[in-house]
Amino acid sequence: MAVYIVQPGDTFSRIAQQYGISISELQQLNPQVSNINLINVGQQLTVPNGEEDIISNENQEEAAELSNQFDNQIESQLATQYSTTINTVLRVQGISGAQYTSRLVNGLLYILVIGDGDFARGERIPITLYKINVTNRPITLRYSTGQRFDLIVRRAADLVEVWRYSRGRFFTQQSGTVTIRPNQYAIYRYTWDQINNLGNQVAAGNFILDAINVAQGFRNQSIRGRFRIRAGVTPTPQPTRPPGPGACTGENLLTNSSFESWRTATQPAGWSASNVRRSNIAFSGRYSVEMGNDPSERSTLSQTFPITAGSNNRISFRVAEDVEGSRVGNFQFGIQALFRDRSGRVVGVAPQGPFSPAIIEDERFELFTFTTGDVPGTAVNAELVFTFTPRPTNRSRIRIDMAEVRCLSL
């Protein structure tokens, strides 16, 4: 299932016809609509996701012509043309007062949000990229690896690269696709900690951020935003490495990482969990853990383990969306590692996500992986936390298997 944003001129019967279903079937998917003759522009409707469509060369050429047509317009004209779509997406995502830029690339309307565009030195900088299909055809994005986007920060004064998201990261070498149907959108989020490619706090100044869709045919066109880091603020202290070599064996630091052992059908051994259940569908072995036993309620899965201060660790796991036929995917999935000192105080966080259903493969386990960066020098343990947060109309769950945390270096 997918989400459709009602556009000017749309009717309930026209939307049903567009997706090849009857009006009664569309009503069943949207029980919140009490009167099918009263739907509003910007309203969200649940529609079938359908079979995956491949963009033909002809469609790509038409999309490219559409892109060239609008790329020659100034940003204010683009924002005016798609103001309803942009405002609806930002409102639904709870974004107000944020700085954003927009660009049309091959039929995808990009919206890049960089917080409010003004940050203290050392403050975490939230980055969100939306890819919205504004054509009347499905667009299939094809990726040669597990990487879905790239982010590059440059100094505005001389365009020298300061930081790149993909630098030093490992991405699974498995190809994949993401299909975005008309008026659907995919969301990609990342939080930058102001640490540059050399591992140092960046100096204050004005910066440019280029966000790139790394799908085939999209890699050479980015969307650009600007932000400022204010001077006169004490920079975030760099973590100090512990004396001596420390322990970095490369062993998996998690217990019951493949979820083969269970205390009960809703409690995996060695993990703290809420609203989960044991699943017989696994990437490896007999079981995986399924988050969202009740798909309308929030679900968490976590484990605490000793960590080596100053170490850089790789976190990886397999994840798949359990769509179960007509179930509607409308949720956010996030992962973070919390680092705590001896008193239990959180002294560092390594977050990833949250991810939307469009990022997670249906019924097929995909490898997600990221690195933590240097663990703060006062940390003695870490907690790996998975969160599943449903939104209205959600009917999907997600399965997780083969979770690992391995020390890479000191």
Number of helices: 5
In the CATH scheme, the class of the largest domain would be Mainly Beta
CATH architecture of the largest domain: Sandwich
**Roughly how many Å apart are the termini?**
45 Å
Into which percent range does the helicity of residues fall? Answer: 10-25%
| Tally of domains | 3
Mean pLDDT: 80
Task: Identify low-pLDDT runs.
Answer: 50-76, 233-246
Secondary-structure element order, N to C = EHHEHHHEEEEEEEEEEEEEEEEEEEEEEE
* Classification by helices and strands: mainly beta
Report the principal-axis shape: globular
Q: How many E strands?
A: 25
SSE arrangement:
Elements: E1 2-5, H1 12-18, H2 23-29, E2 44-47, H3 57-71, H4 75-81, H5 83-92, E3 100-105, E4 108-113, E5 118-119, E6 125-133, E7 139-143, E8 149-155, E9 161-164, E10 176-180, E11 185-192, E12 205-213, E13 222-229, E14 262-264, E15 267-268, E16 272-274, E17 276-279, E18 288-291, E19 299-306, E20 312-322, E21 331-340, E22 346-355, E23 366-374, E24 381-390, E25 397-409
Parallel strand pairs: 5-13
Antiparallel strand pairs: 1-2, 3-4, 4-6, 6-11, 7-10, 8-9, 8-12, 12-13, 14-15, 16-19, 17-18, 18-25, 19-24, 20-23, 20-25, 21-22, 21-24
